[in-house]
Amino acid sequence: MPPTVNLTFICRYEGGKETVSEESIEVDWFLPDEAKEKITDPYIKKAFTDMLEFDGKQRFSTFKQNVEKIDFISDSLDFSV
Known about the structure:
The chain starts with 31 loop residues before the first helix and ends with a strand. It is 22% helix and 19% strand. It contains two helices and two strands.
């Protein structure tokens, strides 16, 4: 599998009504810890945890995809350009 770069963004809810779409078959509101418990994919869980613990620094994580699952390998902080 070729390397990929995934970007995540922190957003703030400002208004509107949540609705399902072609990309989401169900929507709901959860407290952060409740949402974290529901996430089973290692990449998504790591991205969500990074978002909850955001301290202004960039984060870089490495994952390895096996045939059946994705394994977390490492985590680094503050990659300055």
